[in-house]
Write a structure and sequence with these properties.
- Two copies of one chain form a homodimer.
- Chain A is an alpha/beta fold and 410 residues long.
- The first copy, chain A, is built from 16 helices and 14 strands.
- Chain A has two domains: 3-45 and 298-405, Aspartate Aminotransferase, domain 1 (Alpha-Beta Complex); 69-294, Aspartate Aminotransferase, domain 2, CATH 3.40.640.
- Chain A has an eight-stranded mixed sheet with strand order 2-9-8-7-6-3-4-5, with helices on both faces. A four-stranded antiparallel sheet of chain A has the order 10-11-14-13. Chain A has a two-stranded parallel sheet with strand order 1-12.
- In chain A, helix 7 (130-137) links the parallel strand 3 and strand 4 (142-149).
- Chain A is globular and about 65 Å long.
- The termini of chain A are far apart.
- Chains A and B meet through helix 1, helix 3, helix 4, helix 6 and helix 7 of A and helix 1, helix 3, helix 4, helix 6 and helix 7 of B.
Chain lengths: 410, 410
């Protein structure tokens, strides 16, 4: 009896990534990890969580509501808060445009189910977020990777993808995962114009948007589209769907994310969400709402300061130690620096050596490419290490790269 | 611009149920509702939740672990507890057979993704759980409804479905939703024999299994299969996948459910879960684990007593008040009684009158039928009403049915 013969065509299309196996080695606490794109647990707002929980559990009515089944769309005050937070005069968002999800990953799942058919062309940045590729892969689309430069996707290349028939474009405009790039305003405006010229739905992933360390990022694609369309038009003519999450700024285990979409699409997403898992935990939503509306802005200030210092430390160390033939992005926010090794150096093989000899870890870049390539790239995260560890780790990594490059030449 | 033209074929196949719209009327607090299949919030173990939360949040290390990203498979102690709880000498379950999900609904979602292709025949009881039909519908299978009698699915009819090519059978053997039926042991044994004769995967939904009010239900299909196969064979030859949930016995908003499956299938489900939503909230899993391992058995004793009294009150009232030409199931557990009205009486139209004139609600039965029928059936839940309210409500409902039946004759 083999389950393989029973798997659906969709299920056969998705396999465990080799990264996943590799990263299991990270359970070793002596490894200095620059691999995970995760928040520093020391910065979790634990005291606020306890205070708010006590408030909720101290009120019998709210406590019972929090523990019961609840509406698929989400907790109304949270939906209203999200709508207010992202509204502009042009967009005219309200709670009817908001679906609360189990993290931005589930937002992608529902959008993929709603919009993607087998073999349909989907434009994605090259490289892009691995988790998006994985969930899209369960729909067996035809990925069209779009070339990027240090400012993100190249719009002339994006237009070619739209001309080739892509009707969906997934993008992380701010401090991209994994590349660290941020789209300048002009490119955002071009993307919106192209989307409307070719009738392409845009999935804008804002996971890292509030984590800026220098200046705030340009207007979001959603905001740019609101201005492009003019007041009150987005509800019927909007093509931008924006997704967000509490995982990077507050607490990943809330599993609270959201989707902002025109109502005609949102209604379908609600039906799919109901079929998928009925609803997101009401107690987690109430907690998220109270954290958002009380401490979020102050908390993000702290994160910006701490992560900003770590980003500076990483950029400084890489400038100081890296061999000249290795390039890297200098992100203005988020959690990631992207390295390009000399051609021929394989970041996966290098990782084996890095783990075994230097006890340091990162994520090889190949998996972030929808259709292969990027064997000589890698992603470094600076969010969980002290500036001192970052300096030490970048020194070791740079030495290793230089050593391996010499070995390759020899 | 119409989103309808952009929807995937799968998304087009699923529509909002009319029930959903109807049940929005239940927000009216003056309506006496027998509609929802939900636990009574007055019975939530709120003090235990608070005690456990304080324990978790009082320990910095556990608190941080609880709030962070975590393994897709689930929290290891919870997986071990679930494996132990459902193990038998024959099955030899361990944590590697357990995937923690966001409720049993997500277990169904992942199984549907793993095992169902468009047009593939799927056997389901007629009637069966609406939420299962909804999630399966997103895979556009070919439902084969299998006739039921007061003991559940009729096995000779099930064999016909298997002969017609069904390779999956979804079933709720204990106190079925919506029908209230429980499969006797002999039928369970026949089902396992048929599954192995025709190589059919069985999805066994145990949502209500521990909520018995008379004797415990017979051995589960998983246990029966373990005995059928003999010691140590299930891992490689098992066809039964069992799903369960904390929603009916503890707290729905935990959004903690599970899937028990042979490892070869479980590994694929883990990949699909990771793509779907990365993981189930670790803090909710730790809370569920501690509730399970400390208070579950005592708490279920309380639920059995309270819900059992309500079940008795409903059965007694229906016996007393219902016209003779209305039949109903007498469940031995769970939350539901199933009514069959005289042919020609439409339970949906009746509900409109029940809400408007008598301020009582139930769920019309048609939606529980995969391929239509059941217009004269309805589901009553006794889980959230006092025996007094149940008596009052059943009197009103019975009078209404008698009135409408007379009106129909006239």
């Amino acid at each position: 009896m083999s389950w393989n013969t029973k798997f659906s065509e969709d299920a056969r299309a998705i396999e465990a990534s080799e990264i996943r196996e590799l990263l299991k080695l990270l359970a070793d606490p002596t490894v200095l990890s620059f691999a995970g794109g995760i928040p520093d647990p020391e910065l979790f707002p634990t005291a606020d969580v306890t205070r708010i929980r006590n408030d909720i559990e101290g009120n019998q009515q709210i406590s019972r509501e929090a523990m019961q089944y609840s509406a698929t769309e989400g907790y109304l005050p949270l939906r209203e808060w999200i709508a207010d937070r992202h509204n502009t005069d042009n967009l005219e968002l309200d709670f009817g445009n908001i679906l609360v999800t189990c993290g931005a990953q589930q937002s992608l799942t529902l959008l993929a189910a709603a919009l993607m058919d087998p073999d349909a062309p989907i434009a994605v940045a090259d490289p892009t977020y691995l988790g998006a590729l994985q969930v899209f892969m369960t729909r067996r689309p035809n990925f069209i990777p779009v070339a990027t430069d240090p400012d993100g996707v190249v719009t002339s290349e994006l237009e070619k993808a739209f001309q080739a028939g892509a009707k969906i474009f997934y993008t992380i405009p701010d401090f991209q995962n994994p590349g660290g790039m941020t789209l300048p305003l002009e490119r955002r405006q071009e993307i919106i114009e192209l989307a409307h010229k070719y009738d392409v739905a845009i999935i804008e992933d804002t996971a890292y948007r509030t984590l800026y360390y220098d200046a705030p990022p340009p207007a979001s694609l959603l905001e740019v589209e609101g201005e492009f369309l003019g007041k009150g038009k987005w509800q019927n003519e909007g093509l931008v769907i924006q997704i967000g999450t509490a995982s990077k700024t507050l607490v990943p285990a809330l599993r609270v994310g959201w989707t902002i979409a025109p109502k005609a699409l949102l209604d379908k997403l609600v039906i799919l969400k109901q079929a998928n898992d009925l609803q997101t935990s009401c107690m987690n939503q109430i907690l998220a709402y109270r954290l958002f509306s009380s401490i979020l802005d102050d908390h993000v200030l702290t994160l910006r300061q701490v992560y900003g210092e770590r980003k500076d430390a990483m950029v400084k160390a890489l400038r100081q130690y890296l061999p000249n033939n290795v390039s890297f992005t200098e992100p203005e926010g988020g959690m990631f620096v992207w390295l390009r090794l000399p051609e021929g150096l394989d970041a996966r093989k290098l990782l084996e050596v890095a783990l075994a000899e230097d006890k340091i870890a990162y994520v090889p870049g190949a998996a972030f490419h929808a259709k292969g390539g990027g064997d000589n790239t890698l992603r470094l995260s600076f969010s969980t290490c002290s500036p001192e560890d970052i300096d030490r780790g970048m020194k070791k990594l740079s030495d290793l790269i230089a050593r391996e490059a010499r070995r390759q030449v020899a």
